[in-house]
Protein backbone atom coordinates (compact mmCIF):
# COMPACT_ATOMS: atom_id res chain seq x y z
CA UNK A 1 0.00 0.00 0.00
CA UNK A 2 1.25 3.47 -0.88
CA UNK A 3 2.18 5.57 2.17
CA UNK A 4 2.20 8.89 0.30
CA UNK A 5 -0.66 11.16 1.34
CA UNK A 6 -3.21 11.66 -1.44
CA UNK A 7 -3.85 15.35 -2.17
CA UNK A 8 -7.37 16.76 -2.49
CA UNK A 9 -8.73 15.69 -5.85
CA UNK A 10 -8.82 16.66 -8.54
CA UNK A 11 -5.29 18.07 -8.41
CA UNK A 12 -4.88 20.49 -11.31
CA UNK A 13 -1.54 21.67 -12.66
CA UNK A 14 -1.56 24.88 -14.73
CA UNK A 15 1.10 27.04 -16.37
CA UNK A 16 2.84 27.90 -19.64
CA UNK A 17 4.19 25.56 -22.32
CA UNK A 18 7.35 23.76 -21.26
CA UNK A 19 6.97 24.37 -17.55
CA UNK A 20 6.73 20.66 -16.71
CA UNK A 21 3.04 20.13 -15.94
CA UNK A 22 2.77 16.81 -17.76
CA UNK A 23 6.03 15.49 -16.35
CA UNK A 24 4.93 16.45 -12.84
CA UNK A 25 1.47 14.97 -13.35
CA UNK A 26 3.07 11.63 -14.24
CA UNK A 27 5.45 11.76 -11.28
CA UNK A 28 2.69 12.62 -8.80
CA UNK A 29 0.63 9.80 -10.27
CA UNK A 30 3.53 7.38 -9.72
CA UNK A 31 3.95 8.55 -6.13
CA UNK A 32 0.25 8.40 -5.22
CA UNK A 33 -1.31 5.84 -7.52
CA UNK A 34 -3.88 8.46 -8.59
CA UNK A 35 -4.53 8.46 -12.37
CA UNK A 36 -3.02 11.29 -14.41
CA UNK A 37 -5.18 12.80 -17.15
CA UNK A 38 -3.35 15.24 -19.47
CA UNK A 39 -5.72 17.80 -21.00
CA UNK A 40 -3.63 17.80 -24.18
CA UNK A 41 -4.55 14.13 -24.66
CA UNK A 42 -8.32 14.60 -24.36
CA UNK A 43 -8.95 18.16 -25.52
CA UNK A 44 -9.56 17.39 -29.20
CA UNK A 45 -12.20 14.83 -28.23
CA UNK A 46 -13.99 17.52 -26.22
CA UNK A 47 -13.54 20.19 -28.90
CA UNK A 48 -14.93 17.93 -31.64
CA UNK A 49 -17.90 16.90 -29.51
CA UNK A 50 -18.66 20.59 -28.95
CA UNK A 51 -18.61 21.55 -32.64
CA UNK A 52 -14.97 22.39 -33.37
CA UNK A 53 -14.33 22.46 -37.12
CA UNK A 54 -10.94 22.08 -38.80
CA UNK A 55 -12.36 23.96 -41.78
CA UNK A 56 -13.34 26.92 -39.60
CA UNK A 57 -9.90 26.99 -38.03
CA UNK A 58 -8.18 26.66 -41.43
CA UNK A 59 -10.16 29.67 -42.68
CA UNK A 60 -8.28 31.77 -40.11
CA UNK A 61 -5.16 31.34 -42.32
CA UNK A 62 -2.62 30.69 -39.55
CA UNK A 63 -3.54 33.89 -37.70
CA UNK A 64 -2.61 32.69 -34.18
CA UNK A 65 -4.51 35.39 -32.24
CA UNK A 66 -7.66 34.60 -34.21
CA UNK A 67 -7.07 30.86 -33.78
CA UNK A 68 -6.75 31.39 -30.01
CA UNK A 69 -10.06 33.29 -30.00
CA UNK A 70 -11.67 30.44 -31.93
CA UNK A 71 -10.33 27.85 -29.47
CA UNK A 72 -11.31 29.70 -26.27
CA UNK A 73 -15.00 28.67 -26.03
CA UNK A 74 -13.92 25.06 -26.60
CA UNK A 75 -11.25 25.40 -23.91
CA UNK A 76 -13.78 26.72 -21.37
CA UNK A 77 -16.06 23.74 -22.01
CA UNK A 78 -13.12 21.32 -21.95
CA UNK A 79 -12.12 22.56 -18.48
CA UNK A 80 -15.65 21.92 -17.22
CA UNK A 81 -15.88 18.49 -18.83
CA UNK A 82 -12.52 17.13 -17.70
CA UNK A 83 -13.28 18.06 -14.09
CA UNK A 84 -16.74 16.49 -14.29
CA UNK A 85 -15.47 13.32 -15.94
CA UNK A 86 -12.25 12.89 -13.91
CA UNK A 87 -12.94 14.27 -10.41
CA UNK A 88 -10.50 11.83 -8.78
CA UNK A 89 -7.46 12.45 -10.94
CA UNK A 90 -4.36 14.54 -11.39
CA UNK A 91 -5.10 16.78 -14.37
CA UNK A 92 -2.45 18.75 -16.19
CA UNK A 93 -4.00 21.50 -18.29
CA UNK A 94 -2.65 22.56 -21.65
CA UNK A 95 -1.12 26.03 -21.41
CA UNK A 96 -4.15 27.73 -22.98
CA UNK A 97 -6.66 26.13 -20.61
CA UNK A 98 -5.77 28.56 -17.82
CA UNK A 99 -5.19 31.64 -19.99
CA UNK A 100 -8.28 33.73 -20.62
CA UNK A 101 -8.25 37.39 -21.64
CA UNK A 102 -12.02 37.55 -22.13
CA UNK A 103 -13.44 38.40 -18.66
CA UNK A 104 -16.57 36.29 -19.14
CA UNK A 105 -14.58 33.22 -20.15
CA UNK A 106 -12.16 33.77 -17.27
CA UNK A 107 -15.05 34.12 -14.80
CA UNK A 108 -16.59 30.89 -16.10
CA UNK A 109 -13.36 28.94 -15.61
CA UNK A 110 -12.69 30.59 -12.25
CA UNK A 111 -16.16 29.55 -11.07
CA UNK A 112 -15.49 25.99 -12.26
CA UNK A 113 -12.23 25.86 -10.28
CA UNK A 114 -13.39 27.84 -7.26
CA UNK A 115 -14.18 24.85 -5.02
CA UNK A 116 -11.03 22.92 -5.97
CA UNK A 117 -8.23 23.51 -3.43
CA UNK A 118 -5.55 21.82 -5.53
CA UNK A 119 -5.03 24.23 -8.42
CA UNK A 120 -1.25 24.60 -8.65
CA UNK A 121 0.57 27.03 -10.93
CA UNK A 122 3.88 25.51 -12.06
CA UNK A 123 6.62 27.94 -13.11
CA UNK A 124 10.38 27.58 -13.36
CA UNK A 125 11.07 30.80 -11.44
CA UNK A 126 9.35 33.74 -9.72
CA UNK A 127 11.13 35.92 -12.30
CA UNK A 128 8.89 36.06 -15.38
CA UNK A 129 11.71 36.69 -17.87
CA UNK A 130 13.70 33.76 -16.47
CA UNK A 131 10.59 31.55 -16.59
CA UNK A 132 10.04 32.42 -20.25
CA UNK A 133 13.66 31.72 -21.11
CA UNK A 134 13.66 28.33 -19.31
CA UNK A 135 10.31 27.25 -20.78
CA UNK A 136 11.38 28.20 -24.28
CA UNK A 137 14.70 26.36 -23.88
CA UNK A 138 12.79 23.25 -22.81
CA UNK A 139 10.45 23.55 -25.81
CA UNK A 140 13.41 23.99 -28.14
CA UNK A 141 15.10 20.91 -26.69
CA UNK A 142 11.90 18.86 -27.01
CA UNK A 143 11.12 19.95 -30.57
CA UNK A 144 14.67 19.98 -31.93
CA UNK A 145 13.85 22.93 -34.18
CA UNK A 146 13.71 26.70 -33.67
CA UNK A 147 10.56 28.03 -32.03
CA UNK A 148 8.29 30.17 -34.14
CA UNK A 149 7.89 33.78 -33.05
CA UNK A 150 4.20 33.16 -32.36
CA UNK A 151 5.05 30.31 -29.96
CA UNK A 152 7.41 32.55 -28.01
CA UNK A 153 4.81 35.31 -27.87
CA UNK A 154 2.10 32.88 -26.80
CA UNK A 155 4.27 31.59 -23.98
CA UNK A 156 5.09 35.16 -22.95
CA UNK A 157 1.36 35.84 -22.72
CA UNK A 158 0.78 32.63 -20.74
CA UNK A 159 3.46 33.72 -18.23
CA UNK A 160 2.71 37.44 -18.00
CA UNK A 161 -1.09 37.46 -18.07
CA UNK A 162 -2.79 37.47 -14.67
CA UNK A 163 -5.22 34.61 -15.32
CA UNK A 164 -2.87 31.79 -14.20
CA UNK A 165 -2.04 33.59 -10.95
CA UNK A 166 -5.69 34.33 -10.25
CA UNK A 167 -6.80 30.74 -10.91
CA UNK A 168 -4.03 29.12 -8.84
CA UNK A 169 -4.43 28.38 -5.16
CA UNK A 170 -0.70 27.58 -4.86
CA UNK A 171 2.44 28.23 -6.92
CA UNK A 172 5.56 26.08 -7.14
CA UNK A 173 8.86 26.90 -8.79
CA UNK A 174 10.82 24.09 -10.45
CA UNK A 175 14.21 25.56 -11.40
CA UNK A 176 17.07 23.81 -9.62
CA UNK A 177 14.85 20.96 -8.41
CA UNK A 178 14.36 17.44 -9.69
CA UNK A 179 10.96 16.33 -10.91
CA UNK A 180 10.67 14.14 -7.80
CA UNK A 181 11.51 17.06 -5.47
CA UNK A 182 8.90 19.27 -7.11
CA UNK A 183 6.27 16.51 -7.05
CA UNK A 184 6.92 15.97 -3.33
CA UNK A 185 6.74 19.72 -2.75
CA UNK A 186 3.32 19.81 -4.41
CA UNK A 187 2.12 16.88 -2.32
CA UNK A 188 3.40 18.57 0.85
CA UNK A 189 1.26 21.62 0.09
CA UNK A 190 -1.70 19.54 1.20
What's the CATH C level? Alpha Beta
Distance between the termini: 20 Å
Number of domains: 1
CATH level 4 superfamily: P-loop containing nucleotide triphosphate hydrolases
Q: Ranges with pLDDT <50 over ≥5 residues?
A: none
What CATH calls the topology is Rossmann fold
What general form does the structure show? globular
**Structural class determined from secondary elements:** alpha/beta
Side-by-side strand order of the widest sheet: 2-3-1-4-5
The chain-level mean pLDDT equals 93
Helix percent reads: 40-55%
Sequence of secondary-structure elements: EHEHHHEHEHHHEH
- The radius of gyration is 16 Å
Number of helices: 9
- How many distinct beta strands? 5
Note down, in words, how this protein is organized.
By secondary structure, the protein is α/β, with parallel strands linked by helices. The chain has one domain: P-loop containing nucleotide triphosphate hydrolases (Rossmann fold), CATH 3.40.50.300. 55% of the residues lie in helices and 10% in strands. The protein is built from 9 helices and 5 strands.
Amino acid sequence: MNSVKIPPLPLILIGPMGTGKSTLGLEISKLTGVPNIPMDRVRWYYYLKDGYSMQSEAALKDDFPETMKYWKPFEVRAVKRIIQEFPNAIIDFGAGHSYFVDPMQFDEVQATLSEIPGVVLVLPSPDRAESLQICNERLLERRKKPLEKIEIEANRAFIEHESNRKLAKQTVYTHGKTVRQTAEEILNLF
